[in-house]
């Protein structure tokens, strides 16, 4: 059976860029467009040249690239009243963009026609028809966005429907029903979209905003009710509370509802990367709770969950996380059980029985440390060091005998003694000095540590901790070009906590490389 296709129009670069605090440079826009093309969306709505002349640069620049999947579209309003199409700046701006596809928006709500446009209902239909025809005559395909459609429909269904049919008859390839202020709920979208789909022959689309928190649901319901074109943005960025999030819509349509979306099904695996690059370029922190792609989307913390997922992943996962480029994460914490630890150990090649007493002992040490301000969610490798010690798999490669960090008068100096070697280092700050001195002590015996880089450093104030004075928690992320790991230290002093996290980070790497790797390379 051939799957029904749903066309995707991405408007991250137009509606998305209208979000508060987001502004993309030309280079960033090009990068996002290439990413969207590679993902395989059908249309990239890339700008509104009539309102933002800077968008011309984008339309010129993108011509230097050959896109393999997506068509580039420019956005504009229908012509002004009393202005002929060939004299209308907005329509001319689309021709100047030199694109083959245009998205035109126009009025479908009588209130807007009468009070905002200040014209007659008949005249508005003429405006829509001859704006579309003008662009069609110049060889463009036109997608018509019916602004405030759902609200307009509630007030005057006959007129709203007439707008759809007039746009279709004028040659619009798609008429997208827009919930411009995001106030419509899914059951209303279903009723209204169905009504329209039964009374028009033009291909319908939906353009939803998230003001009621239902933009994704509204888009899916729109499809169920007859729309075959969906507009949205990556991560749902957009004006106010944003647009419908394509990162959620696309997998729902493809994986759950069996539609053909994107040029290739394999592209679904790119969703997580596309999401994170757009967050980065938008200057936003990724949302860890974002469905499908969030850091926590497949994280299991409670012991019973981790245990069940290890028996059968379907127990607590709605899809296989790798389908959309995400991965399962089992968290070690005071809430977890031995299953969470086993899962981590398996990842580094150690198989162990769940009933193992030593494992239970390790878990009780972990829980006790969490009560004292540790939180292994963010630093599982510090917890793994404890487990390795309890299991007798740990080997002491070095002994931190003494350390002192001096941080005064713009001078950051660290003195560190490891085994019998003493090293001093000056750094850009106290943590950098400690890192450098510790490395100097270690690299002669362990040159592999040269590859290890610090990629993230965070200080967290854990808040209330039982029976202790106030402490800070430092987590450090390390990377050797291949693998990433995170460790932590907790102390009343930031520097001491940092030295603990640094020591753990290097220690973990040596355990993995020197102690554990040779073990599982043997068989
Ligand atoms: Zn919009």
Could you give a quick summary of the protein structure above?
This protein has 523 residues and is α/β, with parallel strands linked by helices. Helix content is 40%, strand content 19%. The strands form four sheets. It has an eight-stranded parallel barrel, surrounded by eight helices. The chain has a three-stranded antiparallel sheet with strand order 11-12-13, covered by helices on one side. Strands 14-15-16 form a three-stranded antiparallel sheet.
- Tally of individual domains: 2
Number of strands: 16
Helix segment tally: 17
CA-based gyration radius: 29 Å
- How many angstroms separate the termini? 47 Å
CATH topology of the largest domain: TIM Barrel
Bound ligands, each once: zinc ion
User: CATH superfamily of the largest domain, called what?
Assistant: Aldolase class I
CATH architecture of the largest domain: Alpha-Beta Barrel
Profile the largest sheet: 8 strands, parallel, barrel
EC number: 2.3.3.21
Keywords: Amino-acid biosynthesis, Branched-chain amino acid biosynthesis, Isoleucine biosynthesis, Transferase
Domain Pyruvate carboxyltransferase: 6-272
Protein name: Citramalate synthase
SSE topology sketch:
Elements: E1 7-10, H1 26-39, E2 43-47, H2 55-62, E3 71-77, H3 89-97, E4 101-107, H4 110-116, H5 121-137, E5 141-147, H6 149-155, H7 157-169, E6 174-179, H8 186-197, E7 203-208, H9 215-224, E8 229-232, H10 246-256, H11 271-282, E9 299-300, H12 303-311, E10 329-330, H13 338-347, H14 357-371, H15 380-391, E11 400-408, E12 411-418, E13 421-426, H16 430-443, E14 453-460, E15 472-479, E16 484-491, H17 494-521
Parallel strand pairs: 1-2, 1-8, 2-3, 3-4, 4-5, 5-6, 6-7, 7-8, 9-10
Antiparallel strand pairs: 11-12, 12-13, 14-15, 15-16
Helix pairs in contact: 1-2, 1-11, 5-7, 6-7, 8-9, 9-10, 12-13, 14-15, 15-17, 16-17
The protein binds zinc ion.
Zinc ion binds next to loops.
């Amino acid at each position: 059976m051939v799957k029904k296709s749903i066309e995707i129009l991405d408007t991250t670069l137009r509606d998305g860029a209208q979000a508060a605090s987001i502004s993309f440079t030309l280079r960033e826009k090009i990068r996002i467009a290439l990413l969207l093309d590679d993902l395989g969306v059908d249309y990239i709505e890339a700008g509104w040249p009539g309102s933002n002349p800077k968008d011309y640069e984008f339309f010129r620049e993108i011509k230097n690239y050959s896109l393999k999947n997506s068509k580039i579209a420019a956005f504009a309003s229908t012509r002004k009243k009393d202005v002929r199409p060939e004299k209308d700046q907005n329509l001319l701006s689309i021709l100047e963009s030199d694109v083959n596809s245009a998205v035109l928006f126009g009025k479908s709500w009588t209130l807007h026609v009468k009070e905002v446009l200040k014209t007659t209902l008949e005249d508005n239909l003429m405006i829509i028809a001859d704006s579309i025809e003008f662009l069609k005559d110049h060889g463009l395909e036109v997608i018509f966005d019916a602004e405030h459609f759902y609200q307009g429909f509630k007030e005057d269904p006959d007129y709203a429907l007439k707008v759809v049919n007039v746009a279709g008859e004028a040659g619009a390839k798609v008429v997208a029903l827009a919930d411009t202020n995001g106030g419509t709920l899914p059951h209303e979208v279903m009723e209204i979209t169905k009504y329209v789909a039964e009374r028009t022959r033009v291909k319908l689309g939906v353009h939803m905003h998230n003001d009621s928190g239902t933009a994704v649901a509204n888009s899916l319901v729109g499809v169920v009710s007859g729309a075959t074109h969906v507009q949205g943005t990556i991560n749902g960025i957009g004006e106010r509370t944003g647009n419908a999030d394509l990162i959620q819509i696309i997998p729902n349509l493809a994986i759950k509802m069996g539609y053909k979306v994107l040029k290739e099904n394999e592209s679904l695996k790119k969703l997580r990367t596309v999401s994170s690059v757009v967050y980065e370029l938008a200057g936003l922190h990724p949302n860890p709770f974002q469905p499908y792609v969030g850091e926590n989307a497949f994280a299991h913390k409670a012991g019973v969950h981790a245990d069940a997922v290890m028996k059968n992943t379907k127990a607590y996962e709605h899809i296989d996380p790798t389908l959309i480029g995400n991965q399962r994460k089992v968290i070690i914490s005071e809430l977890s059980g031995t299953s969470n630890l086993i899962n981590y150990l398996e990842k580094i090649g150690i198989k162990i029985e769940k009933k193992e007493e030593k494992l239970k002992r390790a878990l009780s040490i972990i829980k006790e440390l969490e009560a004292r301000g540790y939180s292994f969610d963010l630093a599982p490798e510090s917890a793994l060091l404890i487990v390795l010690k309890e299991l007798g798999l740990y080997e002491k490669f070095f002994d931190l005998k003494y350390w002192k960090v001096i941080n005064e008068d713009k001078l950051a100096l660290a003195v560190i003694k490891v085994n019998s070697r003493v090293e001093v280092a000056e750094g850009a700050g106290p943590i950098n000095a400690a890192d450098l001195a510790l490395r100097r002590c270690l690299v002669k015996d362990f040159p592999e540590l040269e590859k290890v880089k610090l990629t993230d450093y965070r200080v967290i104030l854990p808040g209330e901790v039982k029976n202790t004075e106030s402490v800070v928690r430092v987590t450090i992320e390390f990377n050797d070009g291949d693998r990433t790991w995170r460790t932590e230290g907790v102390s009343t002093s930031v520097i001491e906590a940092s030295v603990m996290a640094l020591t753990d980070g290097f220690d973990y790497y040596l355990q993995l490389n020197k102690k554990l790797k040779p073990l599982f390379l043997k068989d």
